Amino acid sequence: MDAHSRKELDRILHPRSVAVVGASASPGKFGWIFLKSLIHIGFSGNLYPINKNVDEILGYKAYPSLAALPEVPDMVVVTIPARHVPDALEEALAAGVPGAVVITAGFGEDSDEGKLLEARVKEIAGRGIRVIGPNCFGVYSPRAGITVIPGSGFSRESGPVGFFAQSGGLTADLGQIAIGRGVKFSAMVSYGNAADVGELDMLDYFAHDPNTSIIAAYLEGVSDGPRFLRLLTEVAAKKPVIIWKGGASATGARMVMSHTGSMGGQAAIWDAVFNQTGAVKVRGLTELIDTLAAFSSLYPRAGRRIAMMGGGGALGVEASDIVDELGLVMPVFDGEIQAEINKHLPEFGKSAKNPVDTGTPLIGADPLAEIMRIIAGRDNVDVIFVVQLLFHSQVLMRRVAGQAQAPLALFAHYPKLAEMAGEISIGSGKPVIAVLPQTSITQSDEDLELEREIRRAADAFQSAGCVVFPTIDRALKALARVAGYQEYRELHGRAAAD
Amino acid sequence: MDAHSRKELDRILHPRSVAVVGASASPGKFGWIFLKSLIHIGFSGNLYPINKNVDEILGYKAYPSLAALPEVPDMVVVTIPARHVPDALEEALAAGVPGAVVITAGFGEDSDEGKLLEARVKEIAGRGIRVIGPNCFGVYSPRAGITVIPGSGFSRESGPVGFFAQSGGLTADLGQIAIGRGVKFSAMVSYGNAADVGELDMLDYFAHDPNTSIIAAYLEGVSDGPRFLRLLTEVAAKKPVIIWKGGASATGARMVMSHTGSMGGQAAIWDAVFNQTGAVKVRGLTELIDTLAAFSSLYPRAGRRIAMMGGGGALGVEASDIVDELGLVMPVFDGEIQAEINKHLPEFGKSAKNPVDTGTPLIGADPLAEIMRIIAGRDNVDVIFVVQLLFHSQVLMRRVAGQAQAPLALFAHYPKLAEMAGEISIGSGKPVIAVLPQTSITQSDEDLELEREIRRAADAFQSAGCVVFPTIDRALKALARVAGYQEYRELHGRAAAD
Predict the structure, then answer these.
(1) Are A402 and B36 in contact (CB < 8 Å)?
(2) CA pair distance B162, A349, nearest whole angstrom
(3) Whole domain around residue A17: which residue ranges?
(4) Sheet-wide strand order for B214-219
(5) pLDDT per position as a tens digit, A479-496
(6) Interface pTM, i.e. ipTM
(7) The model's pTM
(8) Are residues A328 and A255 in the same domain?
(9) Interface of B with A in 313-342 (CB under 8 A)
(10) Number of domains within chain A
């Protein structure tokens, strides 16, 4: 893709004026929801509902056609029924609109009639208007104040992750789940049936976008295997590219690197893609969000030598099972360091070897920070895990230790601990990962109060620059992915840069 | 193990009288916490604190020694320092106490001196008192009102799962996490260093316990490989035995089936154990609790042919990736059934193929139940998944559809949907699995309200006999384990029963 094409995409992602073709005055219709979403997220450019039958929608003057607008909008969003979409795009093209997002479904994915409509969309796009879609949830662009459907809860705060996917639903799910995980986006693009803009364009766009330092995608298939492979190799040597290759289905057959068409063949080819290109493989929404959280916080400071500290649960058990397998190392501390750590631990039930087990969860911010400081000073540790089982703390404090009415005083030290963890991390250059297991699906209201405190603690750690995970194993797996990519980059990135 | 031994264990798990050697009047000490826990969970038998220096602890008359008690207690719990433990056990043996739980740490796991103390404990046990521990968190027995440390929040409601582990911390973690997942226990036993009672005793005990229909264990090693393998084969042909084999560490070397002592060798041996015996392999706390939830609700009604229904997110995407791999099948519905389902779906953005995608999350209980009823009537479906992305519902309802102040009215239909799901499940004999993704770690207070509604919905489904998972992939994996065991049981269980 050339610089001109990238600029066209950039305009769709950051429009100063948007027309909504199919804007509706009926609450609940896509053409209404989308307008409402733009207003809610705070789009500050000019907004033009296009609707022949009403004068005004949601406080905005409605226009009967694109031609009637006082200016040529940077982008049109199309939500009218599929059979009318080609005409609307012709009109946009004629008006000189550079880009369109077609939300409407009912194209190639639906029927033979839809395939013909999609071919027309493709043909019109070829004549000079860039089209995202059809059959998608559109674009989320926090800097521009553009959001996907359904996504009016998305943040205006932008971040390092550029994401693209065919699936609109997945894009909306990811955006929603990202909110609480400290993952922020430069942009998200769901391009649906990819009549025009597809994975090659998006990969190239984010590769050159100075606001994107982490690229992620959910892909069901690619349109041009060899080109995609070449581009991916080039891009992954410079920026991490995290890919969830999903849907080993008919769409996979579009992958033209192989002629087998078998699912096994597809999987093998994709494994080769991941091995050759340095792209980071994930599977499923949980792995995707965990990996994005890890890269956002840890890259490029990750490493394979970890220390773990915590207490009051099965601390080492969960970790020891998978540390080896992931290629991570939990070095045993020497006697001198153990003695130093032991000064801050209770007399019984503890261990200072690594993991450092405080024995009880009832331990304050100061001794934990002291231990963290000692660990951060060790040459053989790259990353520090602090595991806090707040549910045990609650039980011990409120139900057992006789402070049933105490206002969860125990949790009061988390802002302080998080702040100190952030300082130690910055001072030592070593990332701190906080593991704060959540409570279960159904709990009493009392446990909902615990949930609130856990979230506040998580928030404090995230604000201090530490990444938070709900389980040890998910944290370890995400760390291993960052460390693995760093090693690839070390080997191949320089060669690519030379 | 003979019937007599089982009866001895049964008495420790269901004592009518308990003495606490090391009971303390100082809040926070183990000997105080444990007493407090017993009071909190509501132990209704006679409770005797043993303490020379005080007359009374927490309202209970204290006695200077076991010999001074008005009766011989069924069980003593020992929380005094390790060096005094052998003498206390001698005293209990002399008094005729049949069983002891030694919480105290500082034995074989700690030092050479501790190893000698542990040998003494073992020798005393051999003379006629059954000992659980040392270095453990004890026993949780909901029917008897006995609880582990730290576990006073545990329920008095008993259930089908008998669990044992060396690790006390893990046992406490599992008990805590189980509370909201609908998993209920006949008993949990953490046996620590296994000076006397170990994995063979516990497996045998639960195999014969009429209150236990699902057995689960976390094992780091076994003391007698061949015997364990024989017993496991026998038991797993009758009851599901779910094992997390953890800690591929030095403790693994105790596994005498092999002389390699290598971790790879250990892993290979354990894989063979799982293949040969029908024991169900899990790894990590999350898999363990998911599998227990699945067996508690689905066994023996599971099957490999699934239908999935939901909408407003990436419904099929998450599932299609792993259904094949897990040996599950998602049969495509024929045109007639699709037409029937389509009657209850909105005009656009839907699919009735399987998964059934309602397109929007904003759909009421009645159409969902109608669709569920149609699906439950299909011969080629064994299990029904209903996936509800309540976070999207909230966004659409409160922020977009203009009902910002609505009291989460959308969620009001979940009790009704859950009730109907329960009825359809009972009527058809087909399990219904509800997937209700939780929100993220850190969220605003508004999202905490959403979390509360999700939990209420989950609670409603669980009360109606449906099992609830937070993600599709975790639900699928847990189902596959139950289906796999059922097939094993079908093949081998009968042979064993003949």
Answers:
(1) yes
(2) 26
(3) 3-293
(4) B138-140, B185-190, B161-165, B214-219, B241-245, B280-282
(5) 999 999 999 999 886 655
(6) 0.85
(7) 0.89
(8) no
(9) 313-318, 320-322, 324
(10) 2
